[in-house]
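Researcher: I'd like a structural prediction for the single chain below. Treat it as a standalone chain; there are no partners to consider.
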Amino acid sequence: MEKIWCEKYRPLVFKDIIGQKPIVDKIKAMVEKKNLPHQLYVGPAGVGKTSLILVVSHELYGDSWQENILELNASDTRGIDVIRNEVKNFARTKSLTGVPKICILDEADSLTKEAQQALRRTMEKFSNSCRFCLLANYSSKIIEPIQSRCAVFRFKPLVKEEINKIITNVADNENLKIGNKAIDALFEISEGDVRKIYNILQSCSSISKEITNELIYEMVSFANPKEVKKILENAVSGDFIKSREKLLKLMLEAGLSGTDIIKQVQREIWELDIENDNKLKLIEKCAEIEFRMVEGADEFIQLEALLSQFVLLGK
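Model: Treating it as a single chain, here is the predicted structure.
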C-alpha cells in the first residue's frame, strides 16, 4: 500500500483535511480515546474520505499502521468469497497494539448485495478485534443492516474558498503562477473534487509554470464557457446557421463529446438574457437531449435539435 504524503513529504495529519472540520473534529476525539465504531463515510469523489481514514490509521498505529489495516477498493475482486475469506481472516485476528484493526472498504457502494449480506455478520461477530470503515459515494447503495451498524459521516463538496486555499498552497510550494481566472476555471471544472484539481495542475505545470484558464481548458478538453455562451446567444438571436457552425467547430477542435457539451450548455443557460420561464423550458429540454444521447442517439443531431429550441424560444 502506498504511503500518504502532503507538501514537504511529511505524513498527512488531521489539519490537512480541508473542508470537513465538523467530521474531522468528531473522528479526532474518537481517535484520542482509541474507541472507534464501525464507520460509513458518504460523499462525492475527491473530498477527503480515503485521506481521513488513512490519517486515522496513522494516528492509531504509528509506524505499524500498514500492518494493522486492510484496504480493498473497487479495482479488487470483492465478491462474496473475498468477504468470507480474506476479510474474515483479517478481522478475526487481534492487533498487537491492543487497538482493533481497521478494514477499509473503499467504494463500498460497488459491493454486490450478496457480499454486503455476508459482511453484516462479520462486522458484528469480530467487532472486538476489527473495526470496519466503508467509503461510498451513495449511501442508498449500502444495505440498511450495514448502515445501522455504522456511524454515518456525510462529506460535503468543498466550497470555493476552500478550493482557493488548496490551489494557493500548491502554487506556493511548486512555484506556480495561477491567476484568478485560472482558479475560477479549476473550481468550475473540478466541481469540488480536489483529486481532479491536483491532476490538472500537475499536467499543466509540466507545460508552463504560469497556469492560465486557456491552458486549463485545453489540457482537460473543456470548452471555454465564453464560447459556449456565444453559441447559445447566436441561437437565441435567431441565427441558427452561425450557432450550428460554431458548435461543430468547437466539438471538432476541442474533441468534446455531446454529453460534455450538454453539461456546459446547462450551466450557461442561466447566464442568458431571456425570461426565466424560457430558461426552465431549456433546462428541461437539456435533460431530454442528454437522455437521448445516453441511449445511443446521434450526438450532433441531438445538439442541433437543442439549438433549434433556443431559436424558437428566442423569437
